[in-house]
Amino acid sequence: MLQPAMTSATPQLARAAVKAAIPLKPILKSSSTLLGTRRTSDDAGLDDDTMDSPQSPRKRQRVEFDLNNIEIHEIGARSVEEIKQEIKKALERHDQGDDEDYDLLKDTLSGKQTSSYDDDEDDDVDPTLPAKRRQELKVYLVSLASFSPRLGRSCDGIVKSVLQCQWLGQDEQFAKIYVQFLAALVSAQGARLTQVLSSIIERFTDSRPSDWAIPNYPTVSRDVAMERLHVAIRYLLQLFPSTKPVLEHLISSKYPFHDESKRMHIAYVDNLLKLRSYCPDLRAEIMDLVVSRLVQIDVEMQMNLDDMDDRLAAMVAMALKSSRENGNQDEEDSDESDAESVDSDESEENEYTRVKTAKENIEKMDSILDTLFELYTPNFADPDSDEASEVFEDLLSEFSNIILPTIKSRHTQFLIFHFGQKSERLIDAFCGTCINIAFESQRPLILQQAASAYLASFVARGVHVPGHIVVKIFEVLGYHLDQMRAVYETSCRGPDVRRYAPFYALMQALIYIYCFRWQDLIKSVPDEVDKDDPSTYLDQEIEWEPEIKDIMRRNIYSKLNPLKVCSPVIVEQFAKLAHRFRFMYVYPLIESNKRVRLSQFASGAYSSGGALRDMSFDMNDESWQQLGSFFPFDPYQLPVSKRWVEQDYIPWRTIPGLNQDERDEDSDDEQEEGDDDVEEDTATDDEIGEDE
Description:
Distance between the termini: 32 Å
Number of helices: 26
Shape: elongated
Number of strands: 4
Order of helices and strands: HEEHHHHHHHHHHHHHHHHHHHEEHHHHHH
Largest sheet: 2 strands, antiparallel
Oligomer: single chain
Radius of gyration: 33 Å
Helix content: 40-55%
């Protein structure tokens, strides 16, 4: 139930604000205070026979590993002790300036070659050689772990070689030895924690076996390779508490750029969500990161589509359809086949690039949003549970801090639209948040207007928003509208969108709600009205909910003259409905407004028109002094993820007989009705919302 106290801060928003105010943790402490308490390796997926847990930390803390538990003691005629001597010799000579053995050791540890077989005459014919080299690399890693205290800044080369090693494509024992080495390295060289974690996070974008394949070795599946990454992170998290703030920084800095491929984005997001599952301290930060980057793609995608003509937009639709029919084949193959079909003409190549970019952005958006819908759905199995409230609190925080301030976000906000309709409790939380933002005087005007648009669009379009909440929201907004009017009218000379923007945004919100939810604003109707047939409401004596009609009349006919400033198409649709439902007759006001010049009331530097002349604006074009028609929950168009929301919003439906114009009885009725039909279709498609 929506309570009147909605105008004060909701508990959800308050908790979100408190959470947002908590400062970030420090990135990395000095090595002397780096390490944490004793943990076991079981939860990290590392068996006791390959790895022991560290002892409790002390002043210069080190994690001691029982390396002898790894049953690798020699390879061929060389023992672990002999390889240790080789490493010791290489490091000592490196300290003296002789890097011959040191460079050879770097190549060995990177997997490029192994020293004990370099001179083998049977290299080309020995089928067991690759396996022997892999086995020897294990021995080198086991041996090198004991030299971790010596792998400081002077040994950057060796450390980089090890971190670049293709360990994901090796066998399971190798992977465990490698993770063990990383832990030993960080234990002895705390400053290398960021470097080690960076080498792991960088692989979050890998998604194809070729990214980690080892020549002449069975292919490791993507699931296995990715699980190894998370085994390493889990183990480091257990051993070293300061891993968390470092991870928070790295997952942001390593996030793929917006123009990177869909494959990389999907792989990275999948890995972030897996990290979120076992690192609860980073859950909110991970979701904030994913949503903020998703919004960036959303805006770029929308701007690209807005700049396209109908022909290019049709090409984008065809490319998306072709991609789905081909089962989203590998991107490289798709790119090559597309490139072959593009003429070498430069203009056509530019068009191809624009279409390809738009298609990829749409597919990125679609895939990531589909993943997020699937991720959150189990949390709302019981929408009135504490779990659902907690998750929705996080969604509200992301909405308030990331989505709402972003202009032209088109699809990301449907996460909160979908889950916000799961119960009246959640509906109340979202509406209360929007109302708080819309009427907090310290908020920027653009945020207040955006909050009004989001609230109106949610209430108007949300199919699961019950009628009594629609009425309550209408009354609450009407109350605030009256308050604003009382303040603004004292200084008002006429309509001025720059001075009175919050009033006009709120008025347009009410008009928009009326256009979609007029049935919910009705208290009673005559018996001959069929509630399932909207056309039977036309020209009937309808009783409206108390105050609804008075709210609209007081403000529409005020000195602020909102019908001159609100979006003309929305105003025209409202005028038709209000007239045929005998709610209000505003056509005379609309006609008189055609003779009103907004420029004569414009405030500031624009009132004289000089700035407009300098910028080559058409003084007869007043669209820049009118509100846009942005309502953020118009029908969802992404082809795959729309399955989650297509039952959530109310489509725009024309009412048969609505466009019969009774204002001019002397005109040709048939011709006039035909003209109105064309105008209605255009208005609905372009402004109110085009529905499938």
